[in-house]
Amino acid sequence: MRLKTRVSAYTLSAALIWSSGALSQQMKAEVLHWWTSAGESAAVKVFADQFTKAGGTWVDNAIAGGANARTAGINRMVGGNPPTMMQFNTGKQFDELVSNDLVRDVDKLAQAGKWRELMPKPIVDASVREGKFFAVPVNIHGQNWLFYNTKIFADAGLEPPKTFPELVASGEKLKARGIIPLALGGQPNWEHNLFRAVLVGHGGADMFRKLYGARDQQAVKSPKFKETVELFGKMRGLVDSGSPGRNWNDATALVITNKAAMHFNGDWAKGEFIAAGQTAGKEYGCALVGDGGGKLVIGGDVFVFPTTKDKNQLATQDKLIEVLLDPTSQIEFNKKKGSIPVRMDVDVSSMDVCAQKSHAVLKDPANQVEAMELLSTPNFSGAMQDAVTQYWNNANMSADAFIEKIVGAMRDAS
Amino acid sequence: MTTVSIRAPGISPPATTKARRRIRTRLPAAFALLPTALVVLVVYIGCMLWTVRLSFTSSTLLPKLDWVGLAQYSRLFANDRFLTSAENIVIFGALFISGCLILGFLLAVFIDQNVRGEGIFRTLFLYPYAMSFVVTGVAWQWFLNPGLGLQKLVRDMGFESFTFDWLVNQDMAIYTIVIAGLWHGSGLTMAILLAGLRGVDEDLWKAARVDGIPTWRVYTSIVLPLLRPMVVTATVLLATGVVKLYELVVAMTLGGPGIATEVPAKFVMDHLFERNNIALGTAAATIMLIAVVSVLAPWVYARYVRPQGRHA
Fold first, then answer.
1. CB burial class (10 A; 0-12, 13-18, 19+) of residue B305?
2. According to CATH, what is the number of the domain A145-298+370-412?
3. Residue B183 near residue B140, CB atoms below 8 Å
4. Hey, of A392, A393, A402, which one would you mutate to test binding to chain B, going by the most B CBs within 10 A of its CB?
5. CATH class entry, domain B87-262
6. pLDDT (tens digit, 9 = 90+) per residue, B128-187?
7. Which of A234, A284, A334, B88 has the fewest CB atoms in 10 Å of its CB?
8. Count of pairs with CB atoms under 8 A, one residue in A, one in B
9. Which fold has domain A27-142+299-363?
10. What is the ipTM of this complex?
11. Which of B58, B148, B256 sits opposite A389 (nearest CB)?
12. Does the distance separating the beta carbons of A390 and B60 come in below 8 Å?
């Protein structure tokens, strides 16, 4: 009995302290995200500092690993104790949170801020559900950049390739010179990323959308698709034997240290070059490979705002949105993150040449291709990844067998 | 404290007291066990049932309680990756358990020869077990990587044609996982069997010596049968390691090259937490449960159920 009284007294006092604390803290935002690497945490600090400047208190809740962070965040939302704002990747990851009314509709702010006009359409589409914005995009990542070592290409007297058949041809020449033509992090998701780069470059944006979005079985049975798949298969010969299991940043390091000539990756790989003291356009270059100059596959990050009835929290969330999309924080955040601003109206002349190239390419809507995460469910993407990694790692597997697996994945994956 | 005695007709007072005393001594014990019992019921059994139930639904990101029958199971058994996983766990399980037992036994016998510096050897052999599977996996990944580890070392020593690329070879990669597993688990098996060996009666050895039986024969025909309980203990411990095999694969190969080293636990984890496919993940987990139960059931029956039946 006495113990019980003491316990309840503690709870009561704790509750009192808690509520009085909440009253005095006008804008306290708990932010759940998975930006834990050096460059990423420097980037998120830009938002935190801007929010603090605006009079808020930023409570940083960084959880390493996207899957871990999402699981933790979703569990808290379902359990009724959500953070103030939470990161997701642009795409379908938060679909069910919207359909279960767990995240807030921010369309009023979107209309006031003219987001639909300022942001590329694929990004808008990925944040809008049933005609309303449910997420706030903060950046655009290009996923299919070719990073190349300028010195290796100059020494070999070669131009960086513009199309994939060219890439295979110059790759063979580089291989004869004892250089690893293509550095690849041989883990299923990077093999899949390479496949998507080839698909959008050689097969075209339309075929990319038909595969990942519409799951069009006719498209994957077309001769053009088979040609693309065979081209992808030929690229197996361009990687070194140490590729399987390698981390992506180790693959990037091969280009940095002049061991490998080319590397496909998202623009986040720039962080590795920067950390090694290299400058875009000098030691390394970036290019889009594909027919007609290449398209840019874009994804990125968004923040969602869990539903709440608390007026104070709603105001805090509004303030956060304002901070996220403020031109200054957009430029500073994206410089550190390696991505480009989600608003096409900001001046990017202070960013590096690769970022400027991204921005210029995206000016033309025809060059904007929505990333797999925007088109496909995690489940179908996963099934595709299983198929791609099997094809890539098994030189004896025919293009037809691979296509058969894709058709199977289209049929079975939810 | 007052005691109210109830006299029931037909029951003699001594019997009531006895029963009451029994309740009184058992009550605290029951109370002490209650939390454990609750945990077992709610956490273990409850979650198990919940998992099985979810495998019959179409849940994706969030659990949903509809009913789709065996649809997830037919998907599961049409899935290359799951089938490869199942095959891999059988290969790994058989080689890992038998390998650890054989190596562990040999190491134990070696130490049992009263070698000098026994303490050092014992510590040395047991050390790998102190490492987590993640550390083990990363270390072996580096060691077996053709461009970094063993192969490069031997080639640098002048043997240009030496090739040991199992780690990046689809057909052999699963055996590298076995090697790392053996390195990790043999020491523990040794420790358990060594304890058993030390318990063998000196007189048995003397008798065998008098009869002129060769040492190896004593080990295989007399000592090994005596060690049966130790072997069972080691096997059970190793078997749990097989079922939960996950970190080692993630650290060493991430299931690759291709899907060559996928294992069921990784299949479950990926589908639950990365692919928003709770239903397929729980279906795979259920199959794992069935597999474990069907291996354990005959053993439990033979060990606990049948002997009692015979006595009765």
1. exposed
2. 3.40.190.10
3. yes
4. A393
5. mainly alpha
6. 999 899 999 999 998 998 888 888 889 989 888 888 888 888 889 999 999 999 999 999
7. A234
8. 91
9. D-Maltodextrin-Binding Protein; domain 2 (3.40.190)
10. 0.76
11. B256
12. no
